[in-house]
Amino acid sequence: MRRRACLLRAQPARRPCIRRAAFTNFMDSLTQIALGSAVSLAAMGRRTAAWKAVLWGAVAGTLPDLDALIDHGDPVSNMVLHRGWSHALLYLTLAALPLGWAVARLHGESGQWKRWCWALGLALFTHPLLDWMTVYGTQLLRPFSREPYGLGSIFIIDPLYTVPLIVGTAVAVVVAGRRGLRWNAAGLLLSTAYLAWSAAAQQHVAAVAQASLTAIGWPTGQVLVTPTPFNTLAWRIVAMAPGRYAEGFYALADGGRPVQFTLHDRGEDLVHRYAALEPVRQVAHFSHGFFRMREENGHLFLTDLRMGQEPAYTFHFDLGTPAEAAAGRARITQSWQRPDPAAALPALWRRIRGHGGGDGLFGTPAVAP
């Protein structure tokens, strides 16, 4: 079998465009609303009006993310403590009991309180399980462990996952009887099958990445494989090494073509010098080591490398001057970096179709073919 080779090329600078995350947060909430509604309706069946099951499933599916409203004092703490206690499987299981009882009493269905507990428990329970499929990090096992778990096989927004849930639930509300419930069940089945597909595709890309990195003698002990936005056909790869990290993109349409990587400085001296700082320790643990540090214009910058792409990242923190950071007096700020959608979306579509090997976004050629 012919061995894959990887091409290493210098990375040109690309100017990021700063965008707020409101759209991303809204779409993430919509996905959790759709999942909560679908599983609640499936559990309740026709024991109550479909709109009640859908409404309260949506509420339960949203509740865990209300922790995002809590300010923990600085942007780094807000990042690492999100999806914490509110996403713990134990706490959510316990919360289902009073919530189900209260909803049953509210609608005069006290005889159904156990069924309501089951339905809303499923809506609560599946929320962190879906979050676990993303790369962010979900602390499922609190209070026993603060480890952030993240498979990273699906992007936070993926229409192929969300749309079947919305369609199935909408039809079930409109169409009476078992026929409507079958639509809801079909939506759940398709969305769950899509999650399974994403995990299988991730494993395939991981194998390609490992082979490609081995071919150039790059360490393979710390490799991250995550989907690009809105799909599971094009993937981003990050591989850490002492002092450096490599970034590459691979599309299923690439076939046997080698992965091309760009090399970047991790700021190893800064990482060692400021390893004891609380923000650095927090991000190092939360990102499982996929982070970098830089000093620019007299300020220290700390970046989580898992979400975004060079040079624009979602979690990019200004720790202040070295003196302020060392003294713990810095006012930490976060920059939400986003590529310009007018350039990023066409580039993503080209990459999905297998147009790689360039210096543009997602590793596409700078000029569309």
Question: What would you say this structure looks like, in words?
Answer:
The chain is α+β, with helices and mostly antiparallel strands and 369 residues long. The protein has two domains: 21-150, no CATH class; 204-352, no CATH class. 46% of the residues lie in helices and 16% in strands. The chain is built from eleven helices and 13 strands. The chain has helices at 22-44, 50-62, 75-81, 89-106, 113-132, 159-174, 177-215, 268-273, 278-286, 322-327, 341-352, and strands at 7-9, 17-18, 223-227, 234-241, 244-251, 260-265, 291-296, 299-304, 308-309, 312-313, 316-320, 333-335, 337-338. A five-stranded mixed sheet has the order 1-6-5-4-3. A four-stranded antiparallel sheet has the order 7-8-11-12. It has a two-stranded antiparallel sheet with strand order 2-13. β5 (244-251) and β6 (260-265) form a beta hairpin. α1 (22-44) packs antiparallel against α5 (113-132). It starts with 6 loop residues before the first strand and ends in a 17-residue tail after the last helix. 43% of the residues are buried.
Biggest beta sheet summary? 5 strands, mixed
The total tally of domains equals: 2
Structural class: alpha+beta
**Portion in helices:** 40-55%
Number of helices: 11
Distance between the termini: 31 Å
Unreliable stretches covering 5 or more consecutive residues: 1-20
Query: Whole-number average pLDDT?
Result: 91
Instruction: Report the strand count.
Output: 13
Beta content comes to 15-25%
Strand arrangement across the biggest beta sheet: 1-6-5-4-3
Outline type: globular
- Kindly provide the radius of gyration, computed on alpha-carbon positions and rounded to a whole number of angstroms: 22 Å
Element order: H for helix, E for strand: EEHHHHHHHEEEEHHEEEEEHEEH
